[in-house]
Amino acid sequence: MVTSPNAAVGRLAPSPTGALHLGNARSFLLAWLSIRSRGGTLLCRIDDIDGPRVKEGAIDEALADLEWLGLDFDAEPILQSARAHVYDLALDHLKQRGMVYPCVCTRTEIERAQSAPQESLDHGSRYPGICRDRFASAEAAREATGRDPAWRFVVDDGIVAFEDAIHGHVTIDVAADSGDFVVAKKDGQPAYQLATVVDDGDFSVTEVLRGDDLLASTPRQILLMQALGFPEPRWIHVPLIVGADGRRLAKRHGDTRIAWYRRRGISSEELIGFLAWTCGLIDEREPRTAASLVDGFDVQRIVREATVLEQDPFA
Length: 315
Description:
It contains ten helices and twelve strands. By secondary structure, it is α/β, with parallel strands linked by helices. It has two domains: 9-82 and 239-309, Rossmann fold (3-Layer(aba) Sandwich); 85-192, Glutamyl-tRNA Synthetase, Domain 3 (Glutamyl-tRNA Synthetase, domain 3), CATH 3.90.800. Helix 7 packs across helix 8. The protein is globular and about 65 Å long. It starts with 8 loop residues before the first strand and ends in a 6-residue tail after the last strand.
């Protein structure tokens, strides 16, 4: 595919901590269509740095599912596990500028430090700043407590605002919502927020289309982009497919893995057609290929509410 040097750059980001399911496939389909409809470049990044949770064979399965769905990309997959040195350099940059600090707090200690339970928008506890200004270095933290520290990014007071193609003008007070957040874990691995920002910046990603369960992560990523000197991409946070309980798809909702539908003999055209219909791209449910949806694709046609999956759509 011929692309313009000024064209959009997007990415698919499967995680090998689990199998691709209907919800993942729908977000990936929309990300693929948004870039392909404008002649852009699409990358594939494998989020495989969460070592203990990475499942054997899951990377190959995810790539096979994407190929079966017709969702191709334009370069070899980018493995986050191969980019540890790049994340270390970014963390060192933040350390040198005094924008991060070592933290030895446990989850229990964070919860006990708060006068009342506080949950951030993405369901984690707000960090009350216990270790801010507490230790001069990681070595000092380790010597004083006997614990290996994580690293937290210093969040100043104030609103972070951004424009989202689906949600419009979004404002979040990160200091009040999550507080200072982790950018590197105590085992030395980069946290999701840092790795994602560094990858998108290094590979000149201009558009991030993903599920709106990550909407609350966006202001934290914007703060990191500003700190590391990366431009902000276009944001598109699309509604999820959820179970009857309103929660995003998981094992408790039954088997919705793409591999499961493949083994049952469901065609990729049937599955793509179903996904396109649920998000408003076609008016009637019918078998379609991903390629057949490229012409005329418009992000503004995407439904604004979650799709509730109450039963097997191919039963």
